[in-house]
Amino acid sequence: MTTKFAGMLIALLGGHFVACAQTEIRKITATKTNAVFKIDGMLNEPAWKTAPVVGKFIELRPVPFRKEDSANRTEMYILYNNQGVYFGGYCYEKNKDSIATELIGRDNFGNNDFIGVVLDTYLDKINGFEYFVTPLGEQMDAKAIPQDNNGNSEDFSWNSVWQSACKMQPDGWSFEMFLPYSALRFSKKDIQSWGLNIVRRRNKSGQQLFWNPIDPKVNGFLTQEGLLTIPDKISPPVRLSFSPYFSSYVNNYPYNTAGVKNTTNAFNGGMDIKYGINESFTLDATLVPDFGQTQSDNHILNLTPFEVKYNENRTFFTEGTELFNKGNLFYSRRIGAPPIHLNDISGKLDSTQHIVNNPSETKLLNATKISGRNKNKLGIGFFNAVTETMYATIENDKGQKQKIETNPLTNYNILVLDQSLKNNSSVTLVNSNVLRNGKDYDANVTALLFNLYDKKNKWNLYGNGYSSTIFSNTKSTGYKYGAGFGKVSGSFVFSTTVQAIDDKFNPNDLGIQFYNNNINTYIYAGYYFTKPTKWYNRWFNNFNFNYDQLYVPRSFQSVKFNYNTNLQFKNLWWIGLFANASPKGNDFYEPRVAGRFFRTPSYFTIGTFGQSNNAKKYSVVLTAMFGNTNLFNQHEWYFDFTQIMRFNNKISISHYINLDPIRNNIGFPTSNSDNGADGIYNNSTLLFGRRNRMTVENRLNFKYSFNNKSYITMRLRHYMGTVTYKEFFTLNASGNLDAIPAGNNGIKQYISNNHNFDNNYNTFNIDMVYSWRFAPGSEFNVVWKNGINTFERDVVNGYFKNFNNTIVAPQNNSVSVKVLYYIDYLQLRKKK
C-alpha cells in the first residue's frame, strides 16, 4: 500500500471515489497582514491572533463523518500579504507519545503524522496544489491531477520552493507554512476564490481528518473542497529563478585494454531556469543538463515481444508534466534513448574494421517546457527538447579512424490544450512531433480526448480519438479510438470501455505503446463497504473483465477475468484475496512474425496478500500466488515479502525479496528465418520451447537522517533471471505446437550447432546518496553508484552461486559531487 496521500485516498478504493458529499461547503476569508514573520513554527507573531480560525475537523477514516476529539483537535489560521499566503496552526495531542515521527526525506510521508493544505486555485475541481509538513519539519508537495477517468491522483515529483517550520509542544505540535505566490499558479482576478481543504493524519490511530468533510462514496477528492477567499487583488511579483549547477565525476571500469583508460573523470556545468511569463504560465528550461546522479534502472531479463518500460528518474522530465501526460503520448525516456542506428554499425564493417566507441545514449542539448492555465480554465502545455547528433567511431587495421552517424540531430515537442468545463469535466487536444535531421523518418501524433461528468458527479462519459503518421519514403497513417461510460459515485461503481487500435497506429517515437492491431472491451465493477463494523474498518471488492480481438483481420484473441477483495481490520492490518482466469485464446504477438499466432492454453491464478500496521516500528507486506496453465501442466509460484524496521526517528532499514519460479513455461526462443547451412529453413519455420524460469529480485534499503535537511541513503539491488530450455517444438500454421521428428534432422542440427537458447542474467546495483538541502531549493549531493551486469548461456543453478559470480565480475564504479544553488531574482534584487 502506498504511503502517498493519493494511496490513502484512492489506491485502496480502486481509484474510483474519494471526496465529500454535502449540501453546504465550508468557507473562510483570509485576513491581510503587513506583519513580518519568522517562520519557526512558534506562532509568536501577534498577527496570528487576527486570523480566522479553521477548525472542527471531520474524520474520513476509520469512521467517516465522526467529529474530531476536542483533546486532539486541530486549529489553523490563514493570513496573506503581497508576497504570499501564510498558514499556521496547532495539532493538539492528549498524549504526546501518540505523535508519530520519522525523518524520512522530502516528499516521503513515512511513519509520520502530518498536516496538509490542498488548494484548487483554478476552482475547476480537477487540478490542485498540495503542501504538507510533518512534526519534525519535513516538507512534501505535489500537484493534484486527474486520474484517468475517475477521481484525482497526485504527482509528487513536482517540487516548489516554499518555507515551513514545526515545533514539538507539551500538548501537541505547532507549525507555520509560507507559500509565496511563485509557488502557486492562479488566474488574474480582482478577488481570488480558491478551493481549499486541510488534511491531518494521526498515523498511530489510523485517523485521517479533513476541514471540509470527505465522503468516501463520491468521486474525486477535489470535487468538494471548501472555499478560501482572498478579497484583495493580488499583484504577484516577478517569478524568475535560476538554479546553476556544477558537477564532477570519477568513473572506473576495469577494461584492462591497451589504449583504453580504466579511470576517467568529467566536469560539468549547466543551469535550470524558471520564469513566470504571467501569474498563470511558467517557462522551465534546462541548459546542458546532467542526469548522472539519477537512480539506476531496475533492469530485468525480458523474454516478452515488447520493450521494457522504465521509470523516469530525471527530475526535469517528472516535475510538473501532468499536462504532457494527457493521452499517454509522452514517454520521456525516448529523449536520451539509445541512437536509432546503434545496432546497425556492426553490419557496416568489413573484416579489417572494429568498433572503437559506440555511445548507447543520445546526448540532450536542451529542453524547455511552458505550462499553466488561464482565467478561462484553459490549460496550455508546450514541451520541446533537442538531442545531439551521435556518432560511432570505427578503426581499421592501419589505425585509421572513421565516424558513422548513429542518430541525427533530433527535435521532440508536444503541445497540449486542456479546457476545463463545468462539473469537473474537460476536453483535451494533444499533438506530438519528432523531427530528425537528414534522411531519417519523422513522426506526428494527434489526439482528442473528452471526459464528462453530470452535475451530481455520479455518471461519467469519456472517449478519445488518435491519429499517427510516419513520414519516410512512404507515408503511413494509423488510428486509435474508443469510448467509455460509468457510474463513479456510491457504494457500487462500474465502468465499461471499448478501445480500438488499427494495425498502423504507432506513437512510439515520443510515446510508448506495446502493441497495436487490437480491440479491447473492458468492464469494471466494484462494491465498497466504508462504514466500520465491530471487526473491520473498510472492505473493498472489484471485478474486471477484458475481451480482446485482433483488429485486422477480425479474430478472437483472449478473454480474462479478475476478482479482488481487500479488507482492513480494526487493528489496521490488511488482508486480501485475488483470482484470475482465462480460457484458451490466440496470441498474435509471441511468434514475432506478422500473420502468425500461438494458441494459448487456459490458465488460472489465485493469491493472497497481507499487510501489518505500518505505523508500528516493524511492519511487513506479504504476497503469495499460485498459477496453473493447461499445457504441459505449467505451474508458477510467486512470493514477495517486504519488511521495514524503524529503529528510531533517524534510522530505518527495509528489505524486499521476490521469488518467481515457473515450470514448463512455453515461449518463443528465436526464429529460423536466418536459414540454416543446409538451406531447408524459410520464414514460416518458428521455434517454441518448453522451459523452466526462475526470477529472484532482492533489494535492501538503508536510511540515516542527520536532521530534516540532511540524510544518507543506500539502495542495493540484485536481480537474477534464468531460463533453461527442456524441449523444442515448431509452431504450425494453425497456432499449435508440433514435436520435432526423431532422428538427425536439420532443425535439431540447427538448434545444436547454431544456438544455445538458455539465459543466465544477473544485475547488481548500489546507489548511495548523501544529500544536504542547505538552503531552500539548493542542494549538495554526493553519489556513489556501482553497477554489474552479467549474461551467460550456461545456466548457474542456485541463487547464492549467481550472486557470488556477479559480485566478482567486472564492475563499474562512479563517484560524483553535485552542487545546485537556487537563486530567486527578487531576493537577488533586495541584496543589491
Provide structural commentary.
It is a single chain. With 832 residues, this protein is mainly beta. Among the domains are: 5-230, Immunoglobulin-like (Sandwich), CATH 2.60.40; 563-709 and 722-757, no CATH class. Helix content is 4%, strand content 52%. The chain has 4 helices and 46 strands. It has a 24-stranded antiparallel beta barrel. A hairpin with a 5-residue loop joins strand 9 (139-146) and strand 10. The longest helix has 9 residues, at 746-754. The two termini are 50 Å apart. The relative contact order is 0.09. Mean pLDDT is 90; it is low at 1-22 and 671-682.
Q: Any descriptors?
A:
Immunoglobulin-like; nine-stranded mixed β-sheet; single chain; 52% strand; 832 residues; mainly beta; 4% helix; 24-stranded antiparallel barrel
Instruction: Report the average pLDDT across residues.
Output: 90
- State the end-to-end distance: 50 Å
| Known CATH architecture of one domain | Sandwich
Specify Rg, calculated over alpha carbons.
Answer: 29 Å
How many helical stretches?
A: 4
Ranges where pLDDT stays below 50 over 5 or more residues in a row are: 1-22, 671-682
Please provide the count of β strands.
46
Biggest β-sheet: count, sense, barrel?
24 strands, antiparallel, barrel
CATH topology of one domain: Immunoglobulin-like
Structural class: mainly beta
CATH class of one domain: Mainly Beta
Helix content: under 10%
Q: What form results from the Cα inertia axes?
A: globular
Percent of residues in beta strands: over 45%
